[in-house]
From TrEMBL:
TM stretches of this protein: none
Residues covered by the DSBA-like thioredoxin domain: 7-183
InterPro entries with a match to the protein in the record: DSBA-like_thioredoxin_dom, Thioredoxin-like_sf
Pfam family, one: DSBA
SUPFAM superfamilies: Thioredoxin-like (SSF52833)
Protein name: DSBA-like thioredoxin domain-containing protein
Length: 226
């Protein structure tokens, strides 16, 4: 992976609970370390739906419940709106995160965080164009009008599919997978789980949980700045 100095490249799916834990811990720890201006997150798409089909609410819920016990600080909330509003696809939302990069990595990162907040904490249907743009309007670093134009002409769609072309190789192991400028790659950092029962009807049980990993990665990324 070609990762710019002072950057952590994040490959993930917006509806992946493991990614939510990793990104929350990265952003929270970065602020605590005073590195907000020193390390940026460069978001890429590991589209689980392109591997598995439409997003499964039972699978997502079971993972969130298990990880909610492991990382209660995340504040996971199960979906509270009608089932028919649950986003079976978030490809357009992923496209929006890529499109926001034209406005800068900060805009892309802030939109990604806002979309995740919308889904995980507010049960908003982030697969829908209107919801994406409503969320973007409240993100100070994002020009929602320009983002709407980008979604309507599909200029970032190829970026999502370009990521998928990489995701199907051995280069990326899953969501989340983080890469540093020195070439280091870490899949699902800090957490190891086993499954009790079948996926989507069972639940994950933590075998290890290392909350200190963000400090190591953030310091390593910050050290690569020229």
């Amino acid at each position: 992976m070609n990762v710019a100095p002072g950057t952590i490249q994040v490959w993930s799916d917006l509806l992946c609970p493991f990614a939510q834990v990793a990104i929350h811990r990265l952003r929270t720890t970065r602020a605590e370390l005073g590195l907000d201006g020193a390390v940026r997150l460069d978001h890429h798409t590991f589209a689980l739906e392109l591997f598995n089909g439409p997003h499964s609410r039972p699978g997502t819920d079971s993972e969130a419940v298990g990880l909610g016990q492991l990382a209660p600080e995340i504040g996971f909330r199960l979906w509270t709106q009608p089932d028919w509003t649950y986003p079976s696809t978030v490809l357009l939302a992923a496209e929006a995160v890529h499109a926001a990069k034209a406005q800068g990595l900060q805009a892309s990162e802030d939109l990604d965080a806002a979309l995740r907040r919308g889904f995980w904490f507010e049960s908003r249907p982030i697969g829908h164009r209107q919801t994406i743009l409503e969320i973007a309007t409240d993100v100070a670093s994002v020009d929602a009008t320009e983002l709407a134009a980008a979604l309507d002409d599909g200029r970032a769609r190829s970026a999502v599919m370009g990521d998928h072309a990489i995701a199907v190789t051995d280069a990326v192991q899953g969501s989340p997978h983080l890469f540093l400028p020195d070439g280091t790659g870490i899949h699902n950092p800090g957490i190891e789980v086993r499954w009790e029962g079948p996926w989507a009807s069972g639940y994950p049980i933590a075998q290890s949980n290392d909350p200190e990993w963000p400090k190591r990665l953030l310091h390593a990324a910050a050290a690569t700045r020229s």
